[in-house]
Every structure is written in C-alpha cells, then in structure tokens.
C-alpha cells in the first residue's frame, strides 16, 4: 500500500514538474523572439532593484493598507514553500512529517508560524475578493478585464483560500490523531492554530479523521502542483517573473527615449556626406519602430508576461482618466496575447512563423490608443513590477510615423515646421531672439 | 538689459558662465516669452554672465521624437550638438523641462555632453548661495500657492524638491494637490500632444487638472514648464476662475519677489 502511494506521488510530482518546465521553456522561447538588448550592466544596481522592488515590494507601499495585505499573501506563499518541501519529501519517501526529528522543538513553532500566515493569506484573499466583486474598485471593473481576465483573478484568490484551508484542516486532523496516539502520527508538539481547532473532530472515529487528514494532504499537494501549472496560463505568473523583471528594469532616467543608431547614422551621413566614403554599406533595410511583438525588445515581452493586470498604470493614466481609449494595462495584455498567438503559430508550423495577416498594431492596439499618450510616465511610475508600457507605445508610434507616414495632419505640420523653421510652430527663425530686443 | 549671444562672446574670445537654452516656447510663445524675460532678468540682476544661442538655436527635437519621427529628432539634435560643441559649451540652463530632459538625457548618446540644469534647480542653488535675496513681505507673502509637477521634471527626472524649496522662500502658504510629486497628473501637453487635438474622451486632461488646482483654493498655480503654463491657463479659464487664479512660472514668482 505504502509503495503504491509513493509511486503515485512520484508520478504526480514528476508529471507536474515536467509539464511546468515544458511550458516555462515555451514562454522563454517566446520572450526571446524579442529584439536583443543588453541589460547586464551595473549588476549592483540591478540586485538592489531586485531586493527593493521584487522582494521588498517597495512600490506596493504607495498604498500601505493594500501593500500589507498583499505582503501577507506573498510572504505566506513564499514561506509556506518550506512546508511544501517537507510534504514533497514525505510523498517521495513515504514518510510522515520527516522534519520533526530534525527540527525537534522548533518544528511546532515553524508550523505555528505557517499557520498564522495561512490565516493571513485567507484574510488577504478574502478582502481582495471583496474589493474586486463587491466594492467593485474602478480598476477591477474596467472593460480591460472582461471575460477570462476577470475570472482568472477570482480563480487565483479562491484557489489560494482553498489551499490554505486544506493545509489548516490537514494539520487539525493530524493534531487530533496525535492526541489519540494514532499509529504513524508522531507527536510534534502543539500547532498554534490547528491545535485549537481539534474539538471539531471530537465525535469522529480515528479512521474517519485519518481519511480526512490523508485527503487534505493529497488535495493540498495536488492543488499546489495544479496551481503551479496554472501559473503560465494566468496573470499570476507575476509571482515568478516580477523578480527577473525587477532585475532587468531600466536604470536610465524615465524621460530618456531609446536611441536609434540606424537613424543616427543615416542622418550623420546626410549632414556630413564626407563620412559616407568610409561608411560600410548596409545590405538590409533597417526596420524602424515596432509593428508586431517580434519588433519589440525581449524586455518588453518579459514585461508582458510579468503583468498581473492590477491596473495601477491605467488608474494613473491621464488619457484614461479623461475617457480616452488608451489603457496602459491593455497595451501589456495585448502584447502578451499577441505573443502567445505568435508562439502558437511558430509551434504549429514546425519552428517558423507563418504570416497570419495580423500584427500587434491595429489587430490588437489601435492608432487612436497610441495617439492619446502624453508620455507622462505615470504608468511606468506606478507599476509595482517594473513594467514599461510607454516604451511599447513609443516604438509603435515610431513604426506608424517612419514606416507608414501615418500621423495626424497637425503632427505632419509640426514635423515640417521643425524641419524648415527649426521650431514646431510656423515662426521665422529670425524672430527667435526677438523677445530679447523688446 | 542687453542679452548677448554665444556668437558675441566668441567674437570677443570670451566664454559665459552658462548658456541659457531658451527653447521654442520660450522664444516664440507670447506667454512663455514673459517667463524667458523674467529668468533673464534674474540672471542679470544676480550678475551671472550668460549667453543665448539666439537665431542659431533650434528645436531640441523632443516633440518630433515623441511623435515617432526619429529622423527629424536626429537632424535637430546633431545640428545642435555640433553648434554647442563648436562653442565649447559646458553648462546649460533652461526653463523648459522638455528641452532639459532631451539635452541632459538624450544628447550624450549622440556626442553632446553638458552639465544641464533646469531653471528651478538653478534658482534653488542661487538662493542657497545667498545670491538671490528676497524682499521682506514680498507680494506673495501669506498667499495660497499650489505647485504643479511637470512630468518631464518630476517623474522623468525625479526633481520634486528643488521647485518646492524655491517656493518656500516666498513665505506663501503652499498647498499640495492630491495628485502631486510622483503621482502628479500630467497637464496633457507632453508626448507632442501640444501640437494636436486631444483624442476623443469625456473631458480634456487640462480641464481635469485645472479643476483639481482650482479646488485647492490657491490664488496662484506655480508651474515650471511653458507647455504646462498654456494647458493650465486654459484649464483655469474653463473652470471660470481666470480672474481669481493666476498661473505663474517659478521664475516669474521669484523675479517679482526678489530684491
């Protein structure tokens, strides 16, 4: 019997890890479809960002109450993983609470702490469900989330609550069985929360409680492994990708736009033709800006997978606040959806992309959205996981103007004014210093 | 006051302490010209030797770049850098946060390396050094002033305190809007929006910001950007408060209150 259970567990665990790694590999491949960009400079600053922004969740604390609740859920999930390690080892080795003899008196203290965290996770998730579904906060009822994204958010919160309840029920049954001296249930000492709940099992037989304990144990670990495999399909992937995304976050001032060396070079040759003689001839026409996800940088694509659709960006966006179509959150969700589509296309066509007559621009993101942006950086400032929606918007704008000459008439006028009069308005260059003589 | 150009300095074999980069708005926009004059007056009063590029100055390329036209940006930037490097310019001060951002953050990649200072930071250092002295009981003493963070000084370059420190010297009552500092709401002009109609929406961004500023009860809205100036002035007008509420640049506030 024991060997059957061990075998079953190893198969379950192995399958879960295999499926997750396969999907993770696919996501990695998709991200690397992006344009190359070297983001390995200043490792010291990058580690600092990782610690402050990802581990410390610094930006979440712009709203302290929500930050504390989120921190409980996060810490709960992170720290309870130590308990998961024991559960996995127990499952593989056919043991029960393997760490008891190793940790001795520390064991019930650790489990007690985990239980407190479990209660905090349940509380946090319950409040989050209320904020989404009963208080209906503006950023959660936005049409950005219609359909799957809204359900996704609720599934995550409900799953976390269920997993924590299973964990607490399992411990309570264990404590009850310990008190009765049941075989295999070695004494661990009192667990802080489940220790108080044992009266719930008062009238039940040892056999029933054992079935409850075993069922909870299996459901809990199976639930955790299923949740692990749900992550890559969900906005919840941020619990993993927030870390690399913080590490690779831009270290430049937010106001700085990425230079385009190809254009710089071309303009240089135009202004100083004498350089042209030594210039290496380029045989490929460079592409300007981004039309589809593969024109964006790999960091833009990592951003898309890191987005948990919280909507802080959109809530702070001046265009969105005043009723324009633009929503930075939607820009990120569109980028991820299109990237997944391109990834599936490549997979289905044996490794090469086959034109599907779709692009990120227009099929997902419209010109009207892009034209509403004031480049104010509020979305970049607000994002707790270091996503930069503005960078994507500006690359798409570059494509529109430089590849398609698509710009509002006023902008076309502004461009020619700058080109001819050195100012965005139609004033004579000779009047530039007129103010000084008045 | 005669304002000398870099060309005049160079002709005499001299170099000024600092180049005053006026920018297109500061040069051509009638309202922004007053900011330019106020700042030039301060520099003159304090006795700083400064020059402008005059007719040789061109747009930094900021609006073209943000609209997506990198070619025009590169043309402007490379011409400007050539000119600045020819004059051996080391230090630039400007009253426009967009020019400030482009000169400071985007020109180095193209070979233009200068110490670039926004006029609010420059004013703060002049006050700290005691070179600007304020009148006793200046005209803004006790008045309610609210400060509007421009995006390109604030979030883009993390400068939030210098303008506030300058305003403190006015002995006025500083009231913050709810959306201030890194949470400041844009005026609606950035990203080349200044040069086109807003997209379809429920209201205009400058109306939204104008109302928020008016709601503070302040009689002066302090700005640090010529584009915010235009936007906020219209926003106040829309709120029907142009009689009671004035939008003034920090340079104007100081120029009117210094000895």
Automatic annotation (TrEMBL), chain A:
Give GO cellular component annotations, separated by semicolons.
plasma membrane
User: What keywords sit in the KW lines?
Assistant: 4Fe-4S, Iron, Iron-sulfur, Membrane, Metal-binding, Oxidoreductase, Transmembrane, Transmembrane helix
Transmembrane as a keyword of this entry, yes or no, is yes
Q: Recorded GO terms, molecular function?
A: 4 iron, 4 sulfur cluster binding; metal ion binding; oxidoreductase activity
Domain 4Fe-4S ferredoxin-type: residue ranges: 298-328, 362-393
- Regions that span the bilayer: 6-21, 65-89, 109-131, 152-170, 182-204, 216-233
Pfam families attached to this UniProt entry: Fer4_9
Listed name of the protein = 4Fe-4S dicluster protein
What taxonomic ancestry is recorded? Bacteria, Pseudomonadati, Bacteroidota, Chitinophagia, Chitinophagales
Automatic annotation (TrEMBL), chain B:
Q: Which GO terms describe its molecular function?
A: 4 iron, 4 sulfur cluster binding; metal ion binding; oxidoreductase activity
Highest taxon of the source?
Bacteria
For this record, an example GO cellular component is: plasma membrane
- InterPro entries found in the cross-reference section: Cys_rich_dom, HdrC_iron-sulfur_subunit
UniProt keywords (A-Z) are: 4Fe-4S, Iron, Iron-sulfur, Metal-binding, Oxidoreductase
Domain Cysteine-rich: start-end pairs: 18-104, 145-232
Respond yes or no to whether keyword Magnesium is given for this record: no
Name of the protein this chain belongs to? Cysteine-rich protein
């Amino acid at each position: 019997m024991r060997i059957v259970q061990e075998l079953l567990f190893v198969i379950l665990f192995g399958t879960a890890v295999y499926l997750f790694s396969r999907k993770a590999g696919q996501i990695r491949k998709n991200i690397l479809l992006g344009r190359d960009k070297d983001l390995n400079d200043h490792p010291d600053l990058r580690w600092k960002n990782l610690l402050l922004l990802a581990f410390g969740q610094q930006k979440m604390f712009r709203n302290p109450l929500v930050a504390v609740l989120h921190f409980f859920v996060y810490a709960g999930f992170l720290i309870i993983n130590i308990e998961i390690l024991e559960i996995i080892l127990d499952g593989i080795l056919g043991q029960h609470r393997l760490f008891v003899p190793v940790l001795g008196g520390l064991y019930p203290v650790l489990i007690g702490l985990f239980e407190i965290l479990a209660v905090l996770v349940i509380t946090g998730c319950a409040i989050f469900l209320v904020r989404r579904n009963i208080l209906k906060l503006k950023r959660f009822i936005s049409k950005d989330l219609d359909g799957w994204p809204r359900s996704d958010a609720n599934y995550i919160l409900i799953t976390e609550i269920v997993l924590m309840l299973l964990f607490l029920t399992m411990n309570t049954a264990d404590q009850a069985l310990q008190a009765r001296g049941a075989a295999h249930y070695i004494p661990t000492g009192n667990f802080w929360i489940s220790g108080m709940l044992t009266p719930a099992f008062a009238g039940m037989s040892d056999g029933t409680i054992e079935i409850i304990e075993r069922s909870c144990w299996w459901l809990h670990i199976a639930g955790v492994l299923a949740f692990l495999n749900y992550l890559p399909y969900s906005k919840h992937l941020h619990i993993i990708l927030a870390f690399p995304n913080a590490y690779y976050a831009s270290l430049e001032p937010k106001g700085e736009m990425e230079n385009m060396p190809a254009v710089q070079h071309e303009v240089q040759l135009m202004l100083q033709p004498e350089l042209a003689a030594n210039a290496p001839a380029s045989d490929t026409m460079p592409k300007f800006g981004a039309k589809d996800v593969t024109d964006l940088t790999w960091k833009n694509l990592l951003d898309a997978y890191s987005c948990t659709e919280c909507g802080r960006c959109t809530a702070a966006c001046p265009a969105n606040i005043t009723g324009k179509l633009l929503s930075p959150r939607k820009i990120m969700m569109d980028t991820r959806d299109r990237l997944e589509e391109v990834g599936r296309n490549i997979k289905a066509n044996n490794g090469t992309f086959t034109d599907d007559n779709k692009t990120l621009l227009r099929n997902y993101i419209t010109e009207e959205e892009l034209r509403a942006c004031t480049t104010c950086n509020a979305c970049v400032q607000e994002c707790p996981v270091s996503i930069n929606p503005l960078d994507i918007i500006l690359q798409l704008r570059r494509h529109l103007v430089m590849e398609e000459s698509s710009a509002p008439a006023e902008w076309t006028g502004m461009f020619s004014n700058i080109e001819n009069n050195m100012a965005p308005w139609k004033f004579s260059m000779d009047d530039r210093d007129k103010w000084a003589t008045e | 006051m005669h304002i000398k150009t870099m060309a005049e300095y160079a002709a005499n074999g001299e170099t000024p302490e600092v180049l005053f980069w006026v920018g297109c708005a500061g040069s051509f926009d009638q309202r922004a010209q007053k900011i330019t004059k106020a700042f030039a007056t301060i520099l003159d009063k304090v006795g700083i030797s400064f020059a402008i590029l005059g007719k040789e100055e061109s747009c930094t390329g900021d609006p073209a770049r943000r609209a997506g036209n990198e070619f025009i940006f590169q043309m402007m930037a490379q011409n400007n850098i050539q000119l600045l490097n020819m004059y051996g310019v080391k230090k630039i001060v400007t009253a426009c946060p967009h020019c400030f951002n482009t000169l400071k953050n985007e020109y180095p990649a193209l070979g233009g390396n200068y110490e670039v200072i926004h006029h609010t930071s420059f004013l703060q250092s002049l006050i700290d050094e005691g070179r600007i002295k304020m009148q006793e009981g200046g005209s803004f003493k006790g008045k309610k002033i609210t400060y509007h963070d421009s995006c390109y000084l604030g979030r883009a370059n993390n400068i939030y305190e210098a303008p506030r420190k300058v305003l403190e010297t006015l002995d006025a009552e500083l009231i913050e809007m709810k959306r201030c500092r890194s949470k400041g709401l844009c005026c609606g002009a950035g990203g080349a929006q200044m040069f086109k109609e807003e997209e379809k929406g429920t209201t205009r961004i400058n109306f939204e910001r104008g109302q928020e500023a008016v709601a503070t009860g302040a009689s002066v809205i302090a700005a640090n950007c010529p584009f915010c100036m235009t936007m906020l002035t219209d926003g106040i007008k829309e709120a029907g408060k142009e009689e009671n509420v004035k939008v003034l640049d920090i340079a104007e506030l100081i120029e009117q209150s210094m000895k």
